[in-house]
Amino acid sequence: MRAEPNVAKLLKLRGHNADFSYSKSSEDLRDQAKCAALAGYRYVVALGGDGAFHHLIEGVRGTQAIAGFFPAGNGNDIAADLGIPIDPLDAAGAFLRSTPRAIDLVRARFRDGRIAHYIGAGGMGLDAEAAHLANTKFKGWPGVTRYLAGLSWTFVHERAMDLHAEIDGVPWDGRILFAAVANSTRYGSGIRIAPEAKMDDGWLDVALVSEIRWPRLLEAIPIVLTSGDLRSFTEVQRFRCKRIVLEAERPAKVHGDGELLGESPAEFEVQPGAVRVMTPIRRP
User: Fold this and answer.
1) Which residues are CB-contacts of 48 (< 8 A; sequence separation ≥ 6)?
2) Closest C-alpha among 183, 170, 208 to residue 275
3) Per residue, what are the HEC states of 100-112?
4) What letter does residue 76 receive in the DSSP assignment?
5) Burial of residue 45 (number of CB atoms within 10 Å: 0-12, 13-18, 19+)
6) What CATH number labels 106-271?
7) pLDDT, tens only, 60-92
8) Which of the 8 DSSP states describes residue 125?
Protein backbone atom coordinates (compact mmCIF):
# COMPACT_ATOMS: atom_id res chain seq x y z
CA MET A 1 0.00 0.00 0.00
CA ARG A 2 1.40 3.40 -1.00
CA ALA A 3 0.67 5.01 2.37
CA GLU A 4 2.57 2.44 4.41
CA PRO A 5 6.16 3.81 4.08
CA ASN A 6 5.08 7.32 5.10
CA VAL A 7 3.01 6.03 8.00
CA ALA A 8 5.88 3.83 9.19
CA LYS A 9 8.31 6.76 8.92
CA LEU A 10 6.01 9.06 10.92
CA LEU A 11 5.52 6.53 13.69
CA LYS A 12 9.26 5.89 13.92
CA LEU A 13 10.06 9.61 14.04
CA ARG A 14 7.61 9.95 16.92
CA GLY A 15 9.32 7.11 18.78
CA HIS A 16 6.82 4.33 18.08
CA ASN A 17 7.69 1.02 16.46
CA ALA A 18 5.04 -0.71 14.39
CA ASP A 19 4.93 -4.17 12.89
CA PHE A 20 3.17 -4.32 9.52
CA SER A 21 1.50 -7.41 8.11
CA TYR A 22 -0.46 -8.02 4.92
CA SER A 23 -3.73 -9.85 4.60
CA LYS A 24 -4.51 -12.30 1.81
CA SER A 25 -8.28 -12.26 2.35
CA SER A 26 -10.99 -11.01 4.66
CA GLU A 27 -10.71 -14.15 6.78
CA ASP A 28 -6.94 -13.79 6.93
CA LEU A 29 -7.26 -10.19 8.09
CA ARG A 30 -9.63 -11.20 10.89
CA ASP A 31 -7.33 -14.06 11.92
CA GLN A 32 -4.24 -11.84 11.93
CA ALA A 33 -6.01 -9.18 13.99
CA LYS A 34 -7.15 -11.75 16.53
CA CYS A 35 -3.71 -13.36 16.73
CA ALA A 36 -2.09 -9.95 17.26
CA ALA A 37 -4.54 -9.12 20.04
CA LEU A 38 -4.00 -12.48 21.75
CA ALA A 39 -0.23 -12.11 21.36
CA GLY A 40 -0.36 -9.02 23.56
CA TYR A 41 -0.31 -6.15 21.09
CA ARG A 42 -2.04 -3.26 22.84
CA TYR A 43 -3.06 -1.55 19.58
CA VAL A 44 -4.14 -3.31 16.40
CA VAL A 45 -4.64 -0.93 13.48
CA ALA A 46 -6.19 -1.27 10.03
CA LEU A 47 -4.54 0.60 7.18
CA GLY A 48 -7.17 0.33 4.45
CA GLY A 49 -10.84 0.96 3.75
CA ASP A 50 -14.00 0.53 5.80
CA GLY A 51 -14.05 -3.16 4.85
CA ALA A 52 -10.59 -3.67 6.32
CA PHE A 53 -11.61 -1.98 9.55
CA HIS A 54 -14.80 -4.06 9.64
CA HIS A 55 -12.80 -7.29 9.55
CA LEU A 56 -10.21 -6.01 12.03
CA ILE A 57 -13.03 -5.22 14.49
CA GLU A 58 -14.34 -8.77 14.09
CA GLY A 59 -10.83 -9.98 14.95
CA VAL A 60 -10.19 -7.88 18.07
CA ARG A 61 -13.75 -8.02 19.42
CA GLY A 62 -13.77 -9.72 22.81
CA THR A 63 -10.06 -9.11 23.46
CA GLN A 64 -8.19 -6.46 25.42
CA ALA A 65 -6.72 -4.88 22.29
CA ILE A 66 -7.61 -1.34 21.26
CA ALA A 67 -8.49 -0.88 17.59
CA GLY A 68 -7.11 1.87 15.39
CA PHE A 69 -7.92 3.00 11.87
CA PHE A 70 -5.76 4.71 9.26
CA PRO A 71 -8.32 5.08 6.43
CA ALA A 72 -7.11 4.53 2.88
CA GLY A 73 -10.27 3.48 1.06
CA ASN A 74 -12.89 4.98 -1.23
CA GLY A 75 -15.63 5.59 1.32
CA ASN A 76 -14.06 6.21 4.74
CA ASP A 77 -17.56 6.59 6.22
CA ILE A 78 -16.65 4.99 9.55
CA ALA A 79 -13.57 7.16 10.00
CA ALA A 80 -15.62 10.29 9.35
CA ASP A 81 -18.12 9.36 12.07
CA LEU A 82 -15.33 8.54 14.52
CA GLY A 83 -13.66 11.90 13.86
CA ILE A 84 -10.57 10.24 12.37
CA PRO A 85 -8.88 12.19 9.53
CA ILE A 86 -9.53 10.52 6.17
CA ASP A 87 -5.89 10.85 5.05
CA PRO A 88 -3.91 7.89 6.41
CA LEU A 89 -0.85 9.98 7.32
CA ASP A 90 -2.99 12.56 9.13
CA ALA A 91 -4.85 9.71 10.82
CA ALA A 92 -1.55 8.23 12.04
CA GLY A 93 -0.59 11.59 13.54
CA ALA A 94 -4.02 11.92 15.15
CA PHE A 95 -3.76 8.37 16.50
CA LEU A 96 -0.78 9.36 18.63
CA ARG A 97 -2.88 12.11 20.24
CA SER A 98 -6.03 10.00 20.61
CA THR A 99 -7.66 8.18 23.50
CA PRO A 100 -9.57 4.87 23.63
CA ARG A 101 -13.33 5.23 23.23
CA ALA A 102 -15.92 2.52 23.85
CA ILE A 103 -17.93 2.04 20.64
CA ASP A 104 -21.12 0.04 20.10
CA LEU A 105 -21.35 -2.84 17.66
CA VAL A 106 -24.33 -4.24 15.78
CA ARG A 107 -24.80 -7.99 16.02
CA ALA A 108 -26.62 -9.63 13.12
CA ARG A 109 -27.93 -13.14 13.76
CA PHE A 110 -29.21 -15.30 10.90
CA ARG A 111 -31.67 -18.20 10.83
CA ASP A 112 -28.90 -20.80 10.54
CA GLY A 113 -27.40 -19.50 13.80
CA ARG A 114 -24.50 -17.70 12.13
CA ILE A 115 -23.56 -14.37 13.71
CA ALA A 116 -21.78 -11.36 12.21
CA HIS A 117 -20.99 -7.92 13.58
CA TYR A 118 -20.54 -4.49 12.10
CA ILE A 119 -19.55 -1.12 13.53
CA GLY A 120 -21.04 1.37 11.07
CA ALA A 121 -24.23 1.11 9.04
CA GLY A 122 -25.92 -1.74 7.23
CA GLY A 123 -29.29 -3.17 6.43
CA MET A 124 -31.38 -5.33 4.14
CA GLY A 125 -32.83 -5.04 0.65
CA LEU A 126 -32.06 -2.46 -2.02
CA ASP A 127 -29.23 -0.83 -0.07
CA ALA A 128 -27.54 -4.19 0.47
CA GLU A 129 -27.88 -4.95 -3.25
CA ALA A 130 -26.43 -1.52 -4.04
CA ALA A 131 -23.49 -2.12 -1.68
CA HIS A 132 -22.87 -5.51 -3.28
CA LEU A 133 -22.86 -4.00 -6.79
CA ALA A 134 -20.62 -1.14 -5.63
CA ASN A 135 -18.04 -3.76 -4.64
CA THR A 136 -18.45 -5.84 -7.81
CA LYS A 137 -20.13 -4.53 -10.98
CA PHE A 138 -19.26 -0.87 -10.30
CA LYS A 139 -16.07 -1.37 -8.27
CA GLY A 140 -13.99 0.76 -10.66
CA TRP A 141 -16.23 3.81 -10.31
CA PRO A 142 -14.99 6.63 -8.04
CA GLY A 143 -16.33 7.42 -4.58
CA VAL A 144 -20.05 7.67 -4.02
CA THR A 145 -20.80 7.10 -7.72
CA ARG A 146 -20.18 3.37 -7.14
CA TYR A 147 -23.01 3.21 -4.62
CA LEU A 148 -25.33 5.49 -6.61
CA ALA A 149 -24.80 3.35 -9.71
CA GLY A 150 -25.60 0.23 -7.70
CA LEU A 151 -28.65 1.93 -6.21
CA SER A 152 -29.96 3.00 -9.61
CA TRP A 153 -29.40 -0.43 -11.18
CA THR A 154 -31.15 -2.15 -8.28
CA PHE A 155 -34.01 0.37 -8.28
CA VAL A 156 -34.73 -0.50 -11.91
CA HIS A 157 -34.31 -4.26 -11.66
CA GLU A 158 -35.60 -5.14 -8.18
CA ARG A 159 -39.14 -4.81 -6.81
CA ALA A 160 -40.24 -3.81 -3.34
CA MET A 161 -40.95 -6.52 -0.77
CA ASP A 162 -43.42 -7.15 2.00
CA LEU A 163 -41.69 -6.88 5.36
CA HIS A 164 -42.60 -8.15 8.79
CA ALA A 165 -40.48 -6.53 11.47
CA GLU A 166 -40.33 -6.61 15.25
CA ILE A 167 -38.93 -3.40 16.69
CA ASP A 168 -38.13 -3.97 20.37
CA GLY A 169 -40.91 -6.55 20.30
CA VAL A 170 -43.48 -4.30 18.62
CA PRO A 171 -44.66 -5.67 15.24
CA TRP A 172 -44.46 -3.59 12.06
CA ASP A 173 -45.73 -4.71 8.66
CA GLY A 174 -45.44 -2.91 5.34
CA ARG A 175 -43.95 -2.88 1.89
CA ILE A 176 -40.39 -1.58 1.60
CA LEU A 177 -37.50 -1.13 -0.78
CA PHE A 178 -34.96 -1.48 2.01
CA ALA A 179 -34.38 -1.32 5.75
CA ALA A 180 -31.27 0.42 7.06
CA VAL A 181 -30.01 -0.56 10.52
CA ALA A 182 -27.32 1.92 11.54
CA ASN A 183 -24.85 2.56 14.31
CA SER A 184 -23.25 5.43 12.37
CA THR A 185 -24.72 8.22 10.28
CA ARG A 186 -23.55 7.18 6.81
CA TYR A 187 -22.58 4.49 4.35
CA GLY A 188 -21.88 4.18 0.62
CA SER A 189 -19.19 6.91 0.58
CA GLY A 190 -21.26 9.63 2.21
CA ILE A 191 -24.93 8.60 2.03
CA ARG A 192 -26.34 10.00 5.30
CA ILE A 193 -28.92 7.34 5.99
CA ALA A 194 -29.16 7.96 9.76
CA PRO A 195 -28.12 11.56 10.45
CA GLU A 196 -28.87 11.39 14.18
CA ALA A 197 -27.04 8.13 14.88
CA LYS A 198 -24.26 8.08 17.46
CA MET A 199 -21.76 5.26 17.70
CA ASP A 200 -21.66 5.14 21.49
CA ASP A 201 -25.25 5.79 22.60
CA GLY A 202 -26.41 2.18 22.93
CA TRP A 203 -29.13 2.51 20.27
CA LEU A 204 -29.78 1.35 16.73
CA ASP A 205 -31.10 3.93 14.27
CA VAL A 206 -33.47 2.32 11.76
CA ALA A 207 -34.86 3.70 8.50
CA LEU A 208 -37.60 1.78 6.69
CA VAL A 209 -37.94 3.08 3.13
CA SER A 210 -41.12 2.25 1.24
CA GLU A 211 -41.73 2.35 -2.50
CA ILE A 212 -40.69 5.65 -4.04
CA ARG A 213 -40.99 7.09 -7.54
CA TRP A 214 -37.99 8.14 -9.65
CA PRO A 215 -38.60 11.90 -9.26
CA ARG A 216 -38.76 11.55 -5.48
CA LEU A 217 -35.64 9.39 -5.45
CA LEU A 218 -33.76 12.00 -7.48
CA GLU A 219 -35.01 14.66 -5.07
CA ALA A 220 -33.75 12.65 -2.10
CA ILE A 221 -30.22 11.98 -3.40
CA PRO A 222 -28.75 15.49 -2.86
CA ILE A 223 -30.37 15.58 0.59
CA VAL A 224 -28.80 12.31 1.77
CA LEU A 225 -25.46 13.51 0.42
CA THR A 226 -25.64 16.61 2.65
CA SER A 227 -27.87 16.82 5.72
CA GLY A 228 -29.74 13.53 5.46
CA ASP A 229 -32.87 15.31 6.67
CA LEU A 230 -35.72 13.37 5.02
CA ARG A 231 -38.48 14.46 7.38
CA SER A 232 -40.58 15.69 4.45
CA PHE A 233 -40.44 12.23 2.83
CA THR A 234 -43.39 10.15 4.01
CA GLU A 235 -41.72 7.19 2.29
CA VAL A 236 -39.13 7.10 5.10
CA GLN A 237 -40.03 5.96 8.61
CA ARG A 238 -37.40 6.20 11.34
CA PHE A 239 -37.12 4.29 14.60
CA ARG A 240 -34.64 4.01 17.44
CA CYS A 241 -34.40 0.65 19.18
CA LYS A 242 -32.18 -1.92 20.85
CA ARG A 243 -33.24 -4.87 18.72
CA ILE A 244 -35.00 -5.37 15.40
CA VAL A 245 -35.98 -8.51 13.50
CA LEU A 246 -36.46 -8.28 9.73
CA GLU A 247 -38.24 -10.97 7.74
CA ALA A 248 -39.30 -10.35 4.13
CA GLU A 249 -41.49 -12.29 1.71
CA ARG A 250 -38.32 -13.52 0.00
CA PRO A 251 -34.66 -13.83 1.01
CA ALA A 252 -32.88 -10.49 0.74
CA LYS A 253 -29.21 -9.59 1.03
CA VAL A 254 -28.00 -8.21 4.36
CA HIS A 255 -24.88 -6.04 4.58
CA GLY A 256 -22.86 -4.20 7.20
CA ASP A 257 -20.00 -1.74 6.63
CA GLY A 258 -20.46 -2.40 2.89
CA GLU A 259 -19.69 -6.10 3.34
CA LEU A 260 -22.20 -8.81 2.42
CA LEU A 261 -23.09 -10.65 5.65
CA GLY A 262 -25.86 -13.04 4.60
CA GLU A 263 -29.54 -13.14 3.74
CA SER A 264 -32.72 -12.36 5.64
CA PRO A 265 -34.43 -13.18 7.90
CA ALA A 266 -32.08 -11.57 10.37
CA GLU A 267 -32.09 -10.19 13.88
CA PHE A 268 -30.08 -7.05 14.66
CA GLU A 269 -29.14 -6.10 18.22
CA VAL A 270 -26.93 -3.37 19.60
CA GLN A 271 -23.98 -4.36 21.77
CA PRO A 272 -23.11 -1.24 23.78
CA GLY A 273 -19.43 -0.41 24.21
CA ALA A 274 -18.36 -3.73 22.73
CA VAL A 275 -15.04 -2.54 21.32
CA ARG A 276 -12.50 0.17 22.14
CA VAL A 277 -11.27 2.37 19.31
CA MET A 278 -8.60 5.08 19.37
CA THR A 279 -10.34 8.32 18.39
CA PRO A 280 -9.35 12.00 18.59
CA ILE A 281 -10.42 13.77 21.76
CA ARG A 282 -13.85 15.28 21.21
CA ARG A 283 -14.27 18.96 21.91
CA PRO A 284 -17.21 20.01 24.13
Assistant:
1) 1, 71, 72, 73
2) 183
3) EEEEEEEEEEECC
4) -
5) buried
6) 2.60.200.40
7) 999 999 999 999 888 889 999 999 999 999 999
8) E
Task: Output the CA–CA distances (angstroms, integers) from residue 96 to 15, 92, 99, 137, in the order listed.
Answer: 10, 7, 9, 38
* Angstrom distance (rounded) from CA 9 to CA 26: 27
Angle at 231 between CA 86 and CA 50, to 5 degrees: 20
Residue range(s) occupied by CATH 2.60.200.40 in the chain? 106-271
pTM score:
0.92
Numbered ranges of CATH 3.40.50.10330 in the chain:
4-105+275-279
DSSP assigned state of 197: -
CA dist 262 and 128 (Å) reads 10
Class of domain 4-105+275-279: alpha beta
pLDDT digits (tens, 9 = 90+) for 86-141: 999 999 999 999 999 999 999 999 999 999 999 999 999 988 888 888 888 888 88
Asked if 142 contacts 264 with a C-beta cutoff of 8 angstroms, the reply is no
What are the angstrom distances between the C-alpha of 6 and each of 87, 246, 280? Answer: 12, 45, 20
Rounded distance between C-alpha atoms, residue 144 and residue 148, angstroms: 6
Q: Which contiguous run of DSSP H or E holds residue 156? A: helix 143-157
Cα dihedral 216/150/26/18 (nearest 10): -70
CA–CA separation, 282 vs 123, rounded Å?
Answer: 28
**Cβ pair 123, 182 in contact under 8 A:** yes
d(CA 80, CA 59): 22
Q: How far apart are CA 135 and CA 15, in angstroms?
A: 38
User: Among 227, 213, 82, which Cα is nearest to 156's?
Assistant: 213
Tell me the backbone φ, ψ of residue 67, rounded to 5 degrees.
Answer: -85, 150
